[in-house]
Amino acid sequence: MTAVVVFDLDGTLVDSLADIAAAANRMLCDQGHPTLPKETIGRFVGNGLPKLVERVMIHCGMDPVRHAELTQLTLTHYNAGACDQTTVYPGVLEALDELQEMGCALGVCTNKPEAPARHVLSELKLLPYFDTVYGGDTLDTRKPDPAHLYASFKALPVVGPQIFVGDSEVDAETAQRAKVPFLLFEKGYRKSRVADMPHTLSYDNSAKLPALVRQILQDAALQA
């Protein structure tokens, strides 16, 4: 039995907060606003770029009428430096290699727009591992709507038990609504305690992922 494993991107496969924060702060500088600490912007991450910009604007008391304009400006800044400081989490490459050797089909379901998501994956040598990448603008909906995750699973070439891997409250809610097992990365961008987030299993090192996937497959086989 092989699994169909779909991953979140930011905070799960890659640590991209520094570049996201840099883009938001460049937008703020353009508007004559003081920059925000990376940790503050980190609290706004998780529901896609438009929502992040909306939260930054509310925090800074900016005119909401300019949301579309400032979202595009932030995206332009982000695209210009999306991989300046972004890094792959330790153990990810080894885990992806092992999952592929197990015969798993791998995909990405992220609220980041698809084009920059693919760019980041490509620059960090991750893109060849994935049969599909669904971004926050690929469909008319995004996480936590389970339709976003369902479509990501459906686009993969293998049929099997479905598993979602993520790091945030949005990811946990998506998996719960989709009724699929959820593997929670403890060192991503979550705001809640691990114990307070619905998940099947959690891990603090990506090298542990293949063993967790095997455990879920074994449990599924016993219940079949």
Labels describing this entry:
single chain; 224 residues; alpha/beta; Rossmann fold; DNA polymerase, domain 1; 2 domains; six-stranded parallel beta sheet; two-stranded antiparallel sheet; 9 helices; 8 strands; 12% strand; elongated
Explain what this protein looks like in three dimensions.
The protein is of the alpha/beta class. It has two domains: 4-15 and 86-223, 3-Layer(aba) Sandwich (Rossmann fold), CATH 3.40.50; 17-80, DNA polymerase, domain 1 (Orthogonal Bundle). It is 44% helix and 12% strand. It has helices at residues 17-30, 38-42, 49-60, 67-80, 92-101, 114-123, 146-154, 169-178, 209-223, and strands spanning 4-7, 14-15, 87-88, 105-109, 132-134, 162-166, 182-185, 201-203. Strands 5-4-1-6-7-8 form a six-stranded parallel beta sheet, with helices on both faces. Strands 2-3 form a two-stranded antiparallel sheet. Helix 1 (17-30) crosses helix 4 (67-80). The radius of gyration is 17 Å and the shape is elongated. The model has no long low-confidence stretch (mean pLDDT 95).
